[in-house]
Automatic annotation (TrEMBL):
Protein name, entry field: Glucose-6-phosphate isomerase
GO molecular function: isomerase activity
Pfam families listed in its UniProt record: PGI
Function: Catalyzes the reversible isomerization of glucose-6-phosphate to fructose-6-phosphate.
Subcellular localization, as worded in the UniProt entry: Cytoplasm
UniProt record similarity statement: Belongs to the GPI family.
Pathway info: Carbohydrate degradation; glycolysis; D-glyceraldehyde 3-phosphate and glycerone phosphate from D-glucose: step 2/4; Carbohydrate biosynthesis; gluconeogenesis
Keyword set includes Cytoplasm: yes
EC number annotated for this UniProt entry: 5.3.1.9
Length: 512
């Protein structure tokens, strides 16, 4: 029986009956995370068919190709060596050069944090302004927010990503350019939004630091020639962002140097160490125990065969409140495609819409839609308390996450409503019915540490890449993003304009 036939068979049943018929709990462990997939439209026969597909698509071979530096980005003829940024050691020259780029960033961060590298006036920096966009912003912002309580007391960290002029104005408000270090991250050093904000920041710094202003800039890029030209003869600090590291996989790179400067030194060390542990798991665990392979197969199954076009990421952790935004780029920019590397359509649905937020806060807004809307959305719970200083809070957080997952799966029948609340008017009782049937994955750990965050992000990276292999996609290019940039340049006053009537009408309206 093929996968479509299994999906048709399981779709005709209730989720509760599928789970109860399975009788055993379906879960696996990796690097301190427990991943429970018991509440999915899967049974032993469907799982066997998926495992056969994993063998046909050679997912273990795909893992090996990634970690041996083979070309996995055929659009650009490159390996993807982001994993080398967190490796303790590497076996070949290209990966070793990538690894050393993160070491150089950590050495510079230590010099700045400890006052060995100072502002032009010889004093330590008191503020860092990080300027980037996309992967050059989401990753560092996630780490800094997750471990805000580990920030060094004497340095303020701010971020700027938006082309809206207000974003930089807010980032610089109240700061003294003589005490501020600007970190600019752009792999190509041609990203419009980043260069716009960097150039405005340069004007601001030079107004307050006429001499040696370049000491107030750290530029992270794969294009040092452009960065050097931007410095216009001044000697600045340039860090390498290797070509073989994609922006959305660059959280481990020198692009996170602002975090290394402003957080206690053990945070980034633990973050990379946890990722390296997950790398080892993905390389060595057999298919049936391999967290990345299992989750990639589940993503493929739910999107392409069960028809779930969206997945809600529900992070029951204060430290993970920015994780949904980070993973949106990682998954949807990587696999939000319908054509494979050979130019042929892949057929069927690929990566779903990923959205979500912070539990328990989301329970007071969009969870109503998750529970009782006619739409069925797969959910992914991540339970990872940021602190265990008050066990009552952890108990409450855990209870809410477990309860939401149970009700999404099992629902509440009219008979149950009437039995539990016999005096309800019929019309109110009908409104309290929950259809259930919403599948979910439950990922948990006892406490979120830098190591656990590192292993979790690495897991999602590998899961995304392997799901791309199943769909027949190149997860390491982003032509859809590039087209939007090209069109934007045409619509500027010195561009060629648009042939689209609606666009031209809007231009005229906006100019009045």
């Amino acid at each position: 029986m093929d996968l479509k036939s299994h999906a048709d068979r399981l779709r005709s049943r209730t989720l509760k009956s599928v789970v109860e018929a399975g009788r055993t709990i379906s879960e696996f462990d990796a690097c301190g995370w427990n991943i429970n997939v018991s509440r999915q439209f899967l049974d032993a026969d469907a799982e066997t068919a998926l495992a056969k597909l994993a063998s046909q698509k050679d997912l273990p071979g795909a893992v090996e190709r990634l970690f041996t530096g083979k070309t996995v980005n055929p659009s650009e003829g490159r390996a993807a060596l982001h994993w080398a940024l967190r490796a303790q050691e590497t076996e070949f020259a290209d990966a070793e050069r990538v690894r050393k780029s993160s070491e150089a960033a950590e050495a510079l961060a230590s010099d700045i944090a400890n006052g060995r590298k100072t502002a032009a006036n010889g004093h330590p920096f008191k503020a860092i302004v990080h300027i980037g966009i996309g992967g050059s912003d989401f990753g560092p912002r996630l780490i800094a927010d997750a471990f805000h309580d580990s920030r060094l007391p004497d340095v303020e960290l701010r971020y700027c990503a938006n082309l809206d002029p207000l974003d930089l104005e807010l980032a610089l408000a109240g700061l003294d350019p003589a005490e501020t270090l600007v970190v600019g991250v752009s792999k190509s050093f041609g990203t419009e939004e980043t260069l716009y904000n960097l150039t405005r920041a340069r004007d601001w710094v030079r107004a307050g630091v006429p001499a040696d202003w370049a000491k107030h800039f750290v530029l992270v890029t794969a294009n040092p020639e452009r960065a050097t030209a931007w410095l216009n003869g001044a000697k600045g600090l340039i860090l390498d962002l290797p070509e073989s590291v994609g922006g959305r996989f660059s959280i481990w790179s020198a692009g996170s140097v602002a975090c290394s400067i402003t957080l206690s030194s053990d945070v980034m060390k633990g973050f990379r160490r946890g990722a390296a542990e997950m790398d080892a798991h993905v390389q060595t665990a057999p298919v049936h125990e391999n967290a990345a392979i299992q989750l990639a197969m589940l993503d493929y199954w739910n999107a392409s065969f069960m028809g779930f076009g969206a997945r809600a990421l529900l992070a029951y952790s204060r430290r993970l409140r920015l994780l949904p935004a980070y993973l949106q780029q990682l998954e949807m920019e990587s696999n939000g495609k319908s054509v494979g590397p050979a130019g042929a359509g892949v057929g069927g649905a690929t990566t779903p819409l990923l959205w979500g937020g912070e539990g328990t806060i989301g329970q007071h807004s969009y969870h109503q839609w998750l529970h009782q809307s006619p739409s069925i959305v797969a959910a992914e719970f991540i339970l990872a308390p940021g602190s265990r200083t008050d066990e009552a809070g952890v108990t409450g957080l855990t209870a809410h996450a477990l309860a939401q997952a149970e009700v999404l799966a099992n629902g509440r029948t009219l008979e149950e409503v009437q039995k539990e609340e016999p005096d309800l008017p019929a019309e109110i009782a009908a409104q309290k019915v929950h259809a259930g049937g919403r599948p979910s994955t439950f990922i948990s750990t006892s406490e979120l540490t830098p190591e656990k965050l590192g292993s979790l992000i690495a897991l999602y990276e590998h899961r995304t890449y392997l799901a791309g292999v199943l769909w027949g996609l190149n997860s390491f290019d982003q032509w859809g993003v590039e087209r939007g940039k090209t069109m934007a340049s045409r619509l500027k006053p010195d561009g060629e304009g648009s042939k689209d009537a609606v666009t031209n009408h809007l231009i005229k309206r906006l100019q009045t």
